[in-house]
Amino acid sequence: MGDGDVCHRRPDAGPNRLMPHDRPGNPEPENRNPPVTPPGMVSPTGSREASGPAVVTDEALVRAYQAAPASKEGQAAAERLFGRYHERVYFWCLRLARDHHRAQDLAQEALLVAIRDLGQFQGRSQFSTWLYTVVRRRCIRLLRRERILVDDSVDPDAIEAPAADPATRVGSEEEERWLRRKAIEILDPMEATALFLRCDEGLSVDEITRLLAVPGASGARGLLQAARRHLRAALEERP
Questions:
Q1: CA–CA separation, 100 vs 87, rounded Å?
Q2: Mean pLDDT of the chain
Q3: What is the Cα–Cα distance from 11 to 195, expressed in whole angstroms?
Q4: Domain for residue 35, yes or no?
Q5: From residue 229, how far is each of 70, 144, 151 by CA, in Å?
Q6: Could you give the 3-state DSSP secondary structure of residue 44?
C-alpha cells in the first residue's frame, strides 16, 4: 500500500478487509442499515410516515362516528366508511335481485338502513360481517314484500297492471301485513300456500308444484298468477 492511500485496516476486520468509513475525519455512522417503513404505515418508533395517507380501520371509523354522529367529523367518518363498501353492497344485492337497476335501488335502501343503525354496532363481529347481515336482511325483506304482488318470472303480464308497482302498492310493512291477512281471507288455500312458499321460502315454481302435487301443465304457476290477480283486485278496492 502506498503512502498516499488513506484507507486503514481495522484490527478486527481481518487481513484483507478495508473499511472506507475509517478514513481520517469520517466518523463511523451510528446505523448503516436504518429500518425502512412502507409509506402510510406506522414506523417502529410510533411515528407515521408523511409520504402516504394514514391507514384507518373500519372499526376506528365506526368509533369516530359513534362518538359524535351529528358532528362534521362523525358524518365524514361515516361517509368514508360506507364509501369503501358501495360496490360490494351493490354486488351483494345483485346476487339476490338478479337485475342491475333493482340491485342499485336495493343497495341504496340497504345503505340508508345501515347508516341509520350504525350507532347500534357493538363490534362483536367485523364491520363487513355486520353490514352484510344488514344488507341481506333488508334485501330479502323488500323482495319478499314485492313478490306478494309481482313476480316477473311467474307472471310477466303483471308488470302492465297499475296496481303492480311495488314502489307505490307495497310501500309499507303495514300494507304488507294487510295483504297477508287478505290472502288468508280471500284466496283458495292452495293459492295462499303456493304464494307464501314462493314469497317467504323462496321456492321455485317447479319445487312448489312438486311439493303441493299441483296437477295440470301450468302447475303452481297458475296458482300464483290467480293469487296475485285476486290480491291486486282487493288492493284496488281498498279505501
A1: 12
A2: 75
A3: 93
A4: no
A5: 47, 17, 12
A6: coil
Answer yes or no: is 194 within a domain.
yes
**Amino acid at the residue 217:** A
pLDDT in tens, 88-125: 999 999 988 888 988 999 999 999 999 999 999 999 99
The residue assigned the cell 296496481 is 163
Residue 134 · residue 110 · CB < 8 Å? yes
pTM: 0.51
What cell was used for 230? 285476486
> What is the Cα–Cα distance from 99 to 199, expressed in whole angstroms?
18
Dihedral pair phi/psi, residue 19, rounded to 5° = -105, 110
C-alpha cell at 79: 361517509
- What is the total count of domains within the chain? 2
In a domain, 46, yes or no: no
Q: Which amino acid, one-letter code, is at 239?
A: P
Do 219 and 161 fall within a single domain? yes
What are the helix and strand counts (H, E) for the chain? Answer: 10, 0
Beta carbons within 10 angstroms of residue 50's beta carbon: 7
Query: Using an 8 Å Cβ cutoff, are 36 and 52 in contact?
Result: no
Helix (H, G, I), strand (E, B) or coil at 215: coil
Return the residue matching grid coordinates 300494507.
Answer: 175
197 Cβ contact partners less than 8 Å away, ≥ 6 residues apart: 203, 207, 208, 211, 212
Q: Which residues of 52-84 are buried (b: 16+ CB within 10 A; e: fewer)?
A: eeeeeebeebbebbbeeeeeeebeebbeebbee
Q: Which amino acid is at 238?
A: R
29: DSSP letter: P
